[in-house]
């Protein structure tokens, strides 16, 4: 398949609307990527819940943040550690990159690196920046499916990346 040239239709501070032939999609401005964090320790995982403007409601997610939005040349691991502490109030001794992924490649070119954070210690209250209003949940891995179902029933959106934790349950196997 021959590719048409990419055209930027509109660009804001953080995102760009683009077109390639008849295909329209969105990308992060300035090539910024994201880090998504599986912070897991002692059979528990940290989740965050926050209001998401595009959904018009709160959403249950793995902690995450942008890489390089505050400091040029920032590593994925450093950004993930910074975001984990800011959002959840937990500091990680170890942050390990697990690979790159795309959550909605038919509509968004944004990729993210999934990282695992371990050696967790509570060092603050979390909650993110004042405009984020993040609620932190420490959930037993064995209770993830029930917790997600409870949140869904309460009208909370569920981020697709939660499938990382739910996949075993959905496939009839123990969760990862």
Question: What count of domains describes the coordinates?
Answer: 2
What radius of gyration results from the CA coordinates? 17 Å
Low-confidence stretches: none
**Level of helix content?**
10-25%
CATH C-level name of the largest domain: Alpha Beta
Question: Could you explain how this protein is built, in words?
Answer:
The chain is of the alpha+beta class and 176 residues long. The protein folds into 2 domains: 1-31, no CATH class; 32-170, Nucleoside Triphosphate Pyrophosphohydrolase (Alpha-Beta Complex), CATH 3.90.79.10. Helices cover 18% and strands 44% of the residues. The protein is built from 3 helices and 11 strands, in the order E-E-E-E-E-E-E-H-E-E-E-H-E-H. The protein has helices spanning 76-88, 144-153, 163-170; strands at 6-11, 15-20, 23-28, 33-41, 44-52, 57-61, 64-67, 90-102, 111-122, 135-140, 157-158. The strands form 2 sheets. Strands 4, 5, 6, 7, 8, 9, 10 and 11 form an 8-stranded mixed beta sheet that branches. It has a 3-stranded antiparallel beta sheet with strand order 1-2-3, with no helix packed on it. A hairpin with a 2-residue loop joins strand 4 and strand 5. The longest helix is centred in the middle third of the chain and has 13 residues, at 76-88. It is globular. The termini are far apart. The model has no long low-confidence stretch (mean pLDDT 90).
């Amino acid at each position: 398949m021959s590719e048409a040239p990419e055209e930027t239709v509109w660009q804001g501070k953080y995102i760009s609307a683009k077109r390639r032939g008849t295909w329209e999609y969105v990308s992060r401005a300035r090539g910024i990527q994201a880090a998504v964090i599986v912070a897991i320790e002692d059979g528990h995982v940290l989740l965050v819940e926050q209001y998401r403007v595009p959904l018009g409601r709160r959403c249950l997610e793995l902690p995450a943040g942008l890489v390089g939005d505050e400091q040029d040349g920032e590593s994925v691991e450093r950004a993930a550690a910074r975001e984990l502490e800011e959002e959840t109030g937990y500091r990680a001794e170890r942050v390990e990159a697990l690979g790159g992924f795309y959550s909605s490649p038919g509509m968004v070119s944004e990729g993210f690196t999934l990282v695992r954070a371990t050696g967790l210690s509570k060092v603050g209250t979390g909650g993110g920046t004042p405009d984020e209003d993040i609620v932190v949940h420490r959930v037993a891995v064995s209770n993830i499916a029930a917790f997600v179902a409870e949140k869904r029933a309460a009208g909370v959106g569920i981020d697709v990346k939660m499938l990382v934790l739910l996949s075993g349950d959905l496939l009839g196997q123990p969760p990862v």
